[in-house]
Amino acid sequence: MEQQYLTKERLEALKQELEVYKTTRRIEVADRLKRAKELGDLSENSEYSEARDEQALVESKIIELDNLIRTAKIITADHGGSAVQVGSSVVLEKDKKEIKYSIVGSNEARPEDGFISNESPLGKALIGKKVGDTATLKLPQGEVNYKIKNIH
Predict the structure, then answer these.
(1) How far apart, in Å, are the Cα atoms of 2 and each of 96, 103, 117, 138?
(2) Which residues on neighbouring strands pair with residue 73, listed in sequence order?
(3) Class of 89-151 per CATH?
(4) By Cβ atoms counted within 10 A, which residue in 6, 29, 48, 61 is the most buried?
């Protein structure tokens, strides 16, 4: 599985979520299954079928979270700011307007809040660039240039 970039806070939140799934959610589903079995004939028991489906979803989520946590790489920004990397905050200029983005892993991307993924087209174009460099995106409607004004 591919390495996932996460902040320490996001990793801790995922660990807590995993613990809830492994304990509380598993117990809830087991109780639902037990109650559904007590209703009798399992072949025509929709409650039992729904509980089994929910159990599969819970177990799938546990595997997903466990894999994500296991492959996580904590984002540590190089505050020297020599080149854009995961964890960097950048100030860009596009069409004479300044825009600020933080480069994060895909799991934490929220472009509307200024957090773009290192795997996004702009994130990929910025990685490794330095102050003064221009990142160019080739879009269907033409090229878009972003000049790097500052990195922190």
Answers:
(1) 37, 18, 14, 26
(2) 5
(3) alpha beta
(4) 6
Please count the other Cβ atoms lying within 10 Å of the Cβ belonging to residue 110.
11
Is the per-residue pLDDT at 94 higher than 90?
yes
The residue assigned the tokens 């929709």 is: 46
| Structure token digits, residue 10 | 């996001």
C-alpha distances (whole Å) from 76 to each of 5, 23, 57, 80, 105 are 10, 31, 33, 12, 12
| Domain residue limits, the chain | 4-74, 89-151
Q: Which regions of 38-133 does DSSP assign to beta strands (E)?
A: 72-74, 89-94, 97-104, 115-117
What pTM did the predictor assign?
A: 0.74
- Per-residue pLDDT of 41-91, as tens digits, reads 666 778 888 889 999 999 999 999 999 999 999 987 655 568 999 999 999
